[in-house]
Structure formats: C-alpha cells, structure tokens
What we know:
With 156 residues, the chain is an alpha+beta fold. It has helices at residues 9-15, 22-28, 31-35, 91-106, 122-131, and strands spanning 2-6, 42-49, 52-60, 74-82, 112-118, 134-140, 148-154. The chain has one domain: Aminopeptidase (3-Layer(aba) Sandwich), CATH 3.40.630.
Amino acid sequence: xxxxxxLTSSTAxxxxxxxxxxxxxxxxxxxxxxxxxxxxxxxxxxxKSEHEVIGFFKIDVMYSIGDEFDVxxxxxxRAFVIDQNQQGKGLGTxxxxxxxxxxxxxxxxxxxxxxxxxxxxxGARACYEKGGFVDTGEKYLGGAxxxxxxxxxxxx
Length: 156
C-alpha cells in the first residue's frame, strides 16, 4: 500500500537513501537538492510503500508556468521521484493515484494541481496519465531540460 505524508525530521534521512538514475536527476534534481528546497511556498512530502520511503515530491503553493499559462487557484507538483530500484512495480502510478485524496484532505482550498513533464520523458508522462492527470494540450518551452507538456489534475 502506498501512502503519502509530509516530510519530517525522521523521514528526511530516509530521503537521502532514495536513488535516481542519472538521466532522472536532470528532470527532478537530487535528494539533497530536494531537502534544501523547503520554504513557505514549497512543501516537502514523502511517498511510502509498506512504511518504507520510496520517493518524494514537492507541492508548490505559489505555482506558475511562465507568463503564457495562467494557473489560478492551483498547486504545482514538482520533483516527483520514485526510487530507481522501486520502478517498474506500479508504485509510481499508485503514488499519483494516492496524491489526489491526499491533496483533497490537506489542500482543500485548491481546485487543481499542475505539473510539467519533459517531452523526453514518456515514461513519466504515461505514469501521470494513468494516475489521473490530463494533458492540457499546451507546452512550456522555458524549461532548462527542453520543452515540457503541461498536465492538470482536479482536486475538488
């Protein structure tokens, strides 16, 4: 069973054990970078399977996607990572599916969540679609790693 919870001091050390393939770090950053990004507008969360931390992600409550795509009353999903040793087991899709009830319970004042996924990362895009996100049909062209699909999921 996959569960999601806010990062705590006890789970922070477990995050450092989450490993990413080298090509994934260009899309999501490292575990150390993830831990360094906690702020008022960026909330850090962990993904667990059977009580073990298998991944992490950020919720950005001040999310925006460039000047051309207006996000109103929406959250941003950033740096969504599943440990490379846990991939291929359906845990990514299960984690995305678990995200929606978690957001509804913990971020109920928001109506939607957005993310961008690199056009060179079809596996991640498929995972998000299986988990409940839809492609908006627009692309974000300002990403450091190239063009990105803009995807949306409804919280309410």
